[in-house]
Design a protein that fits this description.
The chain is built from 13 helices and 22 strands. It is of the alpha+beta class and 402 residues long. The strands form six sheets. It has a seven-stranded antiparallel beta sheet with strand order 17-16-13-14-15-12-18. Strand 14 and strand 15 form a beta hairpin. Helix 1 runs parallel beside helix 6. It is elongated, with a radius of gyration of 25 Å. 43% of the residues are buried.
Length: 402
Amino acid sequence: MNIAIIGGGAAGFFAALSAKKHFSKAHVTIYEKSGKVLSKVKISGGGRCNVTHACFSNRELAAFYPRGENYLRKAFEQFNAQSTVEWFESRGVKLKTYPDNCIFPQSNDSQSIIDCFLKEAVDLGVEIKLNQSITHLDIDTNGFTLYTRDTHYQADRIIVTTGGQPKRSGLEWLEKLGHEIIEPIPSLFTFNMPQNPIRELMGNVVEKATVKVEGTKLMGKGPLLVTHWGMSGPAILQLSAWGARILSERKYEFAILVNWLDELKEDALRAQFQKIIQEHEGKKVANLNPFPMTSRLWNFLLQKSEIHPEMRWKDLGKKNINKLVNTLLNDRYEVSGKTTFKEEFVTAGGIALSDVDFKTMQSKKVPGMFFAGELLDIDGITGGFNFQAAWTTGFIAGKSCS
């Protein structure tokens, strides 16, 4: 049996290794259009590779996916986060779980993951063909014929793992085979705030913030990072994932409301202010920053609230306290545009999940063709979830190629 894997990324490799493990006599070949494999694995997580997330309930794990939750819940019964940890550690890759539950290789180097995959491929006898861009394919009673610009290959089974496509044109060949395509759009992106003075505070991080998109129920929680173009960090990326479709429809022109104090409520904040005024009435507001944020950010928010930094706490008065409460809990920013990480580009959209049997990852339209990875209309928030979906769907596709 010839099993062809189209795409040498995370899902492609995992599918190939799974196929060869389950069908040792099969000839398994990865066809990669570029000159190197696993390039996204290499640069992901700042070169560290967030392999999965320490969430060991399948139901809870599936809830981290804005698109694909119900389908993945079933898929995780075959291969989940615990399976991922055991898979890597049984092959000598020690993993470390961080306080935010993200799991990285202990080496803090994505090369550890790549080396593990390449060694496994050699040990199992998986063939890798580089610079082989599949331009089209034919289907007949003998299986599949895959065409490149200058040659062709035969296959009995195909696993398509070509990754997220920035444009619909990258999916047209699958659409011609009868598959429904969900329009691809960016999923994980940062918010641009042209000309906003907050950008002068680039590098400032608030570890616990809550961000909402004005006029919607969308909300992101977690660390917020100020950048030279606007805002980023897990709270923003989470919001961009859940809001991918809505924000695309708005052409990335919208407003956000930031609670710089996580989910602190107004009554609790006012009580905190009264306590500070009682205990430190003579101190200047600029010199007494009672919150987990830098002095630079605190002074910026005072200025935004039109409070002079030399003012003393006892002289704030009701009007100034009202302004400060509103700025800390409901700080409004206009967003105009987005920035995506080109190498780590994540898309919402792709092959419609209703066209795939998630017990096997086989196409319902083309027998013998399987799908895995981000090519599907599946995407997770930041934190190792997109790789987990790649491992899970790749594993199932590989073991189902009978």
